[in-house]
Design goal:
- By secondary structure, the chain is an alpha/beta fold.
- It has one domain: Isochorismatase-like (Rossmann fold), CATH 3.40.50.
- It is 37% helix and 20% strand.
- It contains 8 helices and 6 strands; from the N terminus they run αβααβαβαβαβαβα.
- Strand 2, helix 4 and strand 3 form a beta-alpha-beta unit.
- Belongs to the isochorismatase family.
């Protein structure tokens, strides 16, 4: 199992100020994320953070992009803005990469694939905000790139609990193992 762990990365996605601020987060909601990060670190699983941010002036944003055109207009989503920084509750430790993406998928414009391939990683464990956004988009693209996938169902959040349930119970299992953070952590021992 150690050989497999060395090839695995935990992706902690969109756990940044401006995105998480839209959700009611209490200690119980943080626990699965913290469990996953702690277990990964304790067992030598690479932790990689993914955030959404743009260069000054938003050159990556097309005016016709419904999701991101408003960000370019109102600002607050550049790499230097406080809203794009990873939250203290799951903050990166020195040596843990922070990848910046410019679309919904963690792979979009981020260099994530190069980072994973350079480290020999072929298995991804996904968690983040939101289930129907970054988790779904990243899972689909990672599956197309032939990564082995696990989704931590309780370390994913969506604005619509029913959408989260359908994705976790019916859609994700077609391409990934779906576990709780605790179940995944226990498999590492």
């Amino acid at each position: 199992m150690d050989r497999q762990i060395g090839k695995t990365a935990l992706l902690v996605m969109d756990m940044q100020q401006s995105i998480v601020a839209r959700y009611a987060m209490d200690e119980a909601r943080w626990r699965p994320f913290q469990t996953a990060v702690r277990a990964a670190r304790e067992h030598g699983v690479q932790v990689i953070y993914v955030r959404l941010a743009f260069r000054e002036g938003y050159p990556e944003v097309h005016a016709g992009n419904k999701m991101f055109a408003g960000l370019a207009q109102y600002g607050g989503a550049t790499v230097a803005d406080a809203g794009t920084q990873i939250l203290d509750e799951v903050r990166p430790e020195p040596g843990e990469p922070v990848v910046t993406k410019v679309r919904v998928s963690a792979f979009a414009g981020s260099g994530l694939d190069v980072l994973l391939r350079a480290r020999g990683i072929d298995s991804l464990v996904l968690c983040g905000v939101s289930t129907s956004g970054v988790v779904l988009s990243t899972l689909r693209e990672a599956a197309d790139r032939d990564f082995t996938l696990t989704v931590l169902s309780d370390a994913c959040i969506d604005a619509d609990p029913e959408v989260h349930r359908v994705l976790a119970e019916k859609v994700f299992p077609r391409q990934a193992d779906v576990l709780t953070a605790e179940e995944w952590a226990n498999r590492l021992f």
